[in-house]
Amino acid sequence: MADGYRGLFGAFPYAFRHGDSRIFKLYVIFGALGAIFIGGLFTLSLVVWIGQTASSPGGSLTLSRTFIAVVGLFAAGPLLAPILLVARKHRRGFSYHPRYDTIMALLGVGFLLSIYVAAIISIPECFELDGEQICRDPASGLFGPIVNILYLLPQIAAVGPPAIMMGVMALGHYLLSR
């Protein structure tokens, strides 16, 4: 293509070159790195899970392996959405809200923070490592009270913050692109 936009991988340099704000350009770098990091973590967790269950027959284990991959896509995909949406906006010449690029970048950062909050919520109280029982200590410091409240939530609540931020991102795109 003559415009320098060559599919998924070409969208990143294109969005970086045509982005309207420095905040968005920073997000292109850190959002892509965050998506690569999270994608790598889920890939490694899938490899470990396959290694631990290799001698087991298929069935529900095959489903759980697929579930890990799908959750990885749901974690990394929304980090890339602001970059891809802004690249699309500039490539097609759409006239969106003047601060669309900046707001989408900030929503992407919010999604990254929601993944961090979800990770805090999902930490088990105790787990076993090499036959040794390891339990988490109560959090201290400036954010200690907030982290301790997040520890009290059931682990299934970890789905909430990223799901809410995905909805906020979709709503933000919808409202800003009108």
How do the strands line up in the largest sheet?
1-2
Number of domains: 1
The low-confidence runs, each spanning 5 or more residues with pLDDT under 50, are: none
Number of strands: 2
Essential attributes:
mainly alpha, DUF8056 domain-containing protein, 70% helix, 2 strands, 6 helices, DUF8056, membrane, two-stranded antiparallel ribbon, 178 residues, transmembrane, transmembrane helix
Short description:
Helices cover 70% and strands 4% of the residues.
Task: Walk me through the structure.
This is DUF8056 domain-containing protein. The chain crosses the membrane at residues 26-51, 63-87, 99-123, 149-176. Keywords: Membrane, Transmembrane, Transmembrane helix. InterPro entries: DUF8056 (IPR058369). Residues 1-176 form the DUF8056 domain. This protein has 178 residues and is mainly α. It has one domain (7-176). It contains six helices and two strands. The chain has helices at 7-18, 22-52, 60-92, 100-122, 144-152, 160-176; strands at residues 126-129, 132-135. Strands 1-2 form a two-stranded antiparallel sheet. Strand 1 (126-129) and strand 2 (132-135) form a beta hairpin. The two termini are 28 Å apart.
